[in-house]
Specification:
The complex is a heterodimer of chains A (150) and B (83). Chain A has 4 helices and 8 strands, in the order βαββαβββαββα. Chain A is of the alpha+beta class and 150 residues long. Chain A has one domain: Molybdopterin biosynthesis MoaE subunit (Aldehyde Oxidoreductase, domain 3), CATH 3.90.1170.40. The longest helix of chain A is centred in the last third of the chain and has 18 residues. Chain A is globular. With 83 residues, chain B is of the alpha+beta class. Chain B has 3 helices and 5 strands, in the order βαβααβββ. The longest helix of chain B has 8 residues. Classes of the chains: A alpha+beta (150), B alpha+beta (83). At the A-B interface, strand 3, helix 2, helix 3 and strand 7 of A face loops of B. Chain B: This is Molybdenum cofactor biosynthesis protein MoaD. Chain B: It holds the Pfam family ThiS.
Chain lengths: 150, 83
């Protein structure tokens, strides 16, 4: 059963890893992916993330169940932030634990590919000059990354 | 029927949500979009490219041909850009 949190607050990947592994002798590998807010060459002061409460949790839970069905995971944590996030701050954490590395690597990548295109979050740019910029466009490359999982 | 909107769809429609009585004969998401577009230029603008706007029924992604029978909440939003 995956741990899923949608929150405004930042998270600590090391603390989440410790929470997943402490007292466990069966876990042989964890893979932690953290996505950060970029400043896009100094252009951005922040990214604003909007989400669909209720559906965001449900959709991530659905993707997590799919990952747990595909790989022999011993733990799965997904944290996605919303609100105003500054460059250098973390946006998303996917933490997968398994007995062996391959399942953990693949499950973390699968989770991210699906999150990008199916979890109901939308990013908007806030610019250094104080203006609110454009909504970020979805990338075709993200769809292609998801589709390769079949 | 409760409708909710997100991101630029929300901005174009000019509201976060609304509850509407739908006329007879609206069976699918595509029918609903067609009808919404007759309600004013804000809807016309939000759905100007129908192929882009995504829909969900009761928190589940659906395609335009999905039936809306029994739906409690229908959401419209742009392609997702989280992660």
């Amino acid at each position: 059963m995956a741990i899923i949190r949608i929150q405004v607050e930042a998270f600590d990947a090391a603390a989440e890893t410790a929470a997943l592994t402490t007292g466990r002798g069966d876990i042989g590998a964890t893979v932690a992916f953290t996505g950060f807010c970029r400043d896009e060459g100094g252009r951005l002061s922040a990214l604003e993330l909007e989400h669909y409460p209720g559906m965001a949790e449900a959709e991530i839970a659905c993707i997590a169940s799919e990952a747990e069905a595909r790989w022999p995971l011993l733990g799965l944590t997904v944290i996605h932030r919303y609100g105003l996030i500054r460059p250098g701050e973390p946006i998303v954490l996917v933490l997968a634990a398994s007995a062996h590395r391959r399942a953990a690597f693949e499950a973390a990548e699968f989770m991210m590919d699906y999150l990008k295109t199916r979890a109901p979050f939308w990013k908007r740019e806030h610019l250094k000059d104080g203006n609110v910029g454009a909504w970020v466009d979805a990338k075709g490359a993200d769809d292609a990354a998801m589709e390769r999982w079949g | 029927m409760k409708l909710v909107y997100f991101a630029w769809v929300r901005e174009r429609v000019g509201k976060t949500d609304e509850t509407l009585d739908l006329p007879e004969g609206i069976a699918t998401i595509a029918d609903l979009v067609r009808w919404l577009k007759t309600r004013g230029e804000e809807y016309e603008y939000a759905f100007e490219n129908e192929a882009i706007v995504r829909a969900a029924i009761d928190h589940q992604h659906v395609k335009p041909e999905a039936s809306i029978a029994g739906a409690r909440e229908i959401a419209f939003f742009p392609p997702m850009t989280g992660g």
